[in-house]
Write a structure and sequence with these properties.
two-stranded antiparallel ribbon; alpha/beta; seven-stranded mixed sheet
Length: 302
């Protein structure tokens, strides 16, 4: 991903006086596309989407079989994409999911153990459960990442409640056990090159008979907010003022989001053990991105 990282830190460091409980386990990432000839780089953004589509729309076996054949990967992935009208509810959601998988892969070195768009029942259905499921391996141990993603017209407070409600629902014991069972019952976990001893430990930890409380310290919830941005629309290049304005705005949005989220999380047992991430990527205009994505997907589906 060739986007500039503006912010990559905990809320505890970014906003020392935030008043947010457990702020050291709450992270904010902010990334931006750049400009060329006075215009936001639309084609570069679209290329980023299609360069990463295989991470969520193809299984490990398919990706390996098509390694080194980017056009074949895109054509195969397109068969699992859901094409909605540009202004339909949920339009653009798969773009946000693809970018979340890209951030997880390139920024967190995460392994996509459940490529969600690949495992949908059919291409006209939305993916079930979390929008992304990843495992991060570090020091012969693992963490479990269940992500959500949205493509919004704005990220003002009215829209934040939508993602907050989705996060709260996803943390129910039944939901978490369902995601765990999907991981252990699909073949991808066995094909991504994890050390055999560690893989067996992961499977044992995620067994339905185990208490969900045991995975709370290993659980990360990354939230992707892809959004149309008025600040970006007022730019013709990457200036320091533009970056600073976005940094302050994204810190403000993060503070609002996490303050609201943590109020609702008090009913979730051991919520303080979970690590939360907010990922914000602003775009110039939402509809042209969706329109071009749909046209490309339709072409590749032929």
């Amino acid at each position: 991903m060739k986007f500039e990282v503006l912010i990559n830190d905990t809320i505890d460091n970014l906003i020392p006086d935030s008043g947010i409980e457990n702020a050291a386990k709450i992270h904010l990432i902010s990334m931006i596309n750049d400009f060329e000839d006075g215009k936001w780089r639309f084609e570069k953004f679209q290329d980023t989407i299609w360069n990463n589509v295989g991470l969520t729309a193809l299984s490990v076996r398919e990706r390996e079989a098509l390694y080194g054949e980017p056009m074949s990967i895109m054509k195969a992935a397109a068969q699992n994409l859901r094409i909605l009208n540009d202004d339909a509810y949920g339009s653009g959601s798969e773009i946000a999911e693809i970018l979340l998988y890209a951030v997880m892969s390139h920024h967190h070195n995460a392994l996509p153990v459940v490529p969600k768009l690949f495992y949908k029942q059919n291409a006209n259905d939305p993916a079930k459960g979390a929008d992304s499921v990843h495992i991060v391996i570090e020091d012969n141990d693992f963490s479990l990442w269940f992500g959500e993603s949205k493509f919004f017209n704005s990220i003002e407070d009215a829209r934040l409640y939508e993602i907050i409600n989705s996060v709260i629902e996803s943390l129910g014991t039944g939901k978490l056990k369902k995601e765990n069972s999907i991981i252990t019952n699909l073949s991808d976990l066995h094909e991504i090159g994890i050390d055999e001893e560690l893989k067996n430990r992961i499977i044992e930890t995620l067994k339905p008979s185990e208490s969900i409380d045991k995975i709370k310290p290993k659980l990360h919830i990354p939230i992707m907010l892809l959004n149309e941005c008025l600040i970006t629309q007022d730019q013709v290049d990457i200036s320091e003022k533009y970056k600073n304005d976005l940094i302050e705005y994204h810190k403000d949005r993060a503070k609002s989001y996490f303050t609201k989220l943590l109020k609702k999380l008090r009913g979730v047992h051991l919520f303080e053990e979970i690590t939360f991430h907010l990922i914000i990527i602003p775009v110039f205009k939402k509809q042209p991105i969706i329109r071009d994505f749909n046209e490309t997907a339709k072409f590749l589906k032929k």
